Polysaccharide deacetylase
Amino acid sequence: MYHHISTSPGMITVSPDRFAAQMAYLAQAGYQTVGAAQLSAYLAGGSLPAKSVVLTFDDGYLDNWVHAHPVLQRHGFTALCFLVTSWPGDGAPRVHAHSGGELPELLGHREGELAIERGETDRAILRWSEIDAMRRAGTFEFHSHTHSHVRWDKVARNREEKCAALRRDLLAARAELETRMGEVSDHLCWPQGFYDDDYRQVARETGFRHFYTCEMAPNIRGAKEAGERSIYRLEVRDRPPSWLASRLWVHSRPALSRAYLAVKR
Ligand SMILES: [Zn+2]
C-alpha cells in the first residue's frame, strides 16, 4: 500500500528515488505485478507465480502520475489506484518525471488535504486525462475509493442516515467510473481503512466484493468470507529495498506472517 511518491516528505510518502529502487528490486528479484482481476481469480482458488505482488495506491494523488507512472512503465508493472471519484479534474496531462519539462508543484499530504478542503483538488489530485494516459500505458488500473472520502460513520446522526449516505456515495462512485472509463470493478478501498458490518452490507448491495483494508494479514487463497473478500495490505515505508525484501519474505509465508504480527501487536 502506497499513497504519495513525492519529494515533499511525510508519514505516508515514499521518495521518488526510494520508490524507483523498490521497483527495481522487485523487477530484478523476478517479481511480477498482478491486477485486480488476477488477484480475484487467485483468491477464489486460482494460481499465480510465487513471486507475485499487488501494488496499490490510495486517493489518486498527482504525484502518482509524476513519479510512480514513469517508473512502473519502465518495468512493465501495473498498480491499482483507488480514486475518490469526485476529486479528479479536467485539463491536459501535466508534465511527469520522464516527459521532460518543469514538473508540477507537489503538495505535502497535509497541504494537499487543505487544498482539497478548499476545493482546489487539481493541485493535489490526478486529472481524468492523466488517468486515461495511465490506463492506456497499462501502468495503473482505477478502482473505487468512494465518491467523497467522507467518514459517514462519523458525520451521520444515526445508523439509517449512515447507511443511506454510504449507499449514495458508492453508487455515485460507480456511476462516475462507468461514465469516465466505461467500466467499474467490484474492488473497493475503505476511506481511512474504516468499515463495520453496515459498511460491508451496503458495499455488497451496491456491487462490491473485494474490500481493501489498511490492516496487515496474509491474504489466503480460497478462504471464503460469505462471497466477499477483505484484502490486507502492507504499508510500504520510505525504506530501502532490503526492508521491502524482508517484509515480502515474512508476509508471503502465512504462518510466519501471523507469528510476526502477533508479536508486533
Ligand atoms: Zn484514502
About this structure: Residues 4-264 form a domain with the TIM Barrel fold (CATH 3.20.20.370). Residues 143 and 185 are 6 Å apart (CA to CA).
